Amino acid sequence: MGLTISASLLLLVIVILLVRRAGLKVLHAIVCVLLGFYLAGSNMAPTIDNFSSSLGEMINSLSF
User: Fold this and answer.
1) Could you tell me which of 57, 51, 47, 53 has the C-alpha nearest to residue 1?
2) Rg of the chain over CA atoms, in angstroms?
3) CB 14 within 8 A of CB 33
4) What is the pLDDT of residue 3?
5) Angle at 44 between CA 55 and CA 62, to 5 degrees
6) Domain of life of the organism in this record (predicted)?
7) What is the model's pTM?
8) pLDDT tens track of the chain, all 64 residues?
9) What is the longest distance spanned by two Cα atoms in the chain?
10) Phi, psi of 38 (to 5 degrees)
């Protein structure tokens, strides 16, 4: 649950920065959000969840 909230907040910040700085149009951001909702309800949702969890674990295991 913590990874989901952190990833969601990170993606929200990235989208806000893209809208303000990189010229991403609000309509494009809305389409991306809708795509996320549709993917969450699809058969690909467990695969995407496993990938994001694995990526989070990999980043957590890095030592600098």
Assistant:
1) 53
2) 14
3) no
4) 59
5) 0
6) Bacteria
7) 0.62
8) 455 677 778 888 888 888 899 888 889 888 888 888 888 888 988 998 899 889 888 988 998 8
9) 39
10) -70, -35
Q: Kindly report the average pLDDT of the chain as a whole number.
A: 84
- Concatenating the DSSP letter of every residue in 1-45 gives -HHHHHHHHHHHHHHHHHHHHS---HHHHHHHHHHHHHHHTSTTH
d(CA 64, CA 61): 10
Q: Which one-letter DSSP state was computed for residue 22? A: S
First to last CA, the chain: 26
- The answer to whether the beta carbons of residues 18 and 24 sit under 8 Å apart is yes
